[in-house]
Amino acid sequence: MSVRIVVAGDHQLVLEAFAETLNSADGLEVVGLATSYESVLPAVERHRPTVLLLGESTMGGKALRAAADVRTQHLRCGVVLMVGAATQSVVDRAVAAGALGVVPKNARLPQLITTLMGVAGGCLTVDPSLLRTVAVGDASLSVREVDVLRLTAGGATVKEIAGELFLAGGTVRNLTSAAIKKLGGRNRFDAARIAIEHGLL
Q1: Could you give the count of Cα atoms lying within 13 Å of 50 in the half-sphere of its Cβ?
Q2: What is the pLDDT of residues 72-81, one digit of tens each?
Q3: Rounded mean pLDDT, 107-113
Q4: Residues contacting residue 198 through CB under 8 Å, at least 6 positions apart
Q5: pTM, whole model, 2 decimals?
Q6: pLDDT for 23-36, tens place per residue?
Q7: Structural element, H or E, at residue 136
Q8: Cα-Cα-Cα-Cα dihedral of 166, 170, 175, 179, to 10°?
Q9: Which of 51, 90, 147, 177 is deepest in the core (most CB within 10 A)?
Q10: In order of start, what are the domains of the chain with their CATH numbers?
Q11: Which residues on adjacent β-strands are paired with residue 104?
């Protein structure tokens, strides 16, 4: 089954050429294009893609807002952001907006395809060296551990967290256990409380 992709950017001709390139790769199918911020959500609603591929510098500077809109309203659609330079601050903003993948524009096609496939499978697909960690004493929480604790603090079940973050239930439990151990919590809710008290969520 192909990974269905909507590609969003500013220029129709560029998007069409890009779509043709991706369609030539095994397992990928571009099902729609969006050339404005206003057309992104309708395109996702109409085509129901597995992944939205979005240019960070496009949409009149509203790309991150578009990513957040899609992740809020279409949880099953992963977002990959193409950026000028994949610095830690850029990756932080992208992940905060809900993107699961970040690819620099100077990346080669195989890297983009790998990222699209990873995000389609529900994986955070970013260079690990660019993921910021947050510290409590001598412990540090990964971005994913923070995500799990944030949702736990909101009362989400393990199943709901898994669905929201596109993770397996076992992965959520492993992340939760790691966070509990690092924070010295009694259970996942206590760990979330500790994280909140330290300003981490």
Answers
A1: 17
A2: 888 889 999 9
A3: 91
A4: 136
A5: 0.66
A6: 999 999 999 999 99
A7: strand 134-136
A8: 140
A9: 51
A10: 3-128 (3.40.50.2300), 134-197 (1.10.10.10)
A11: 83
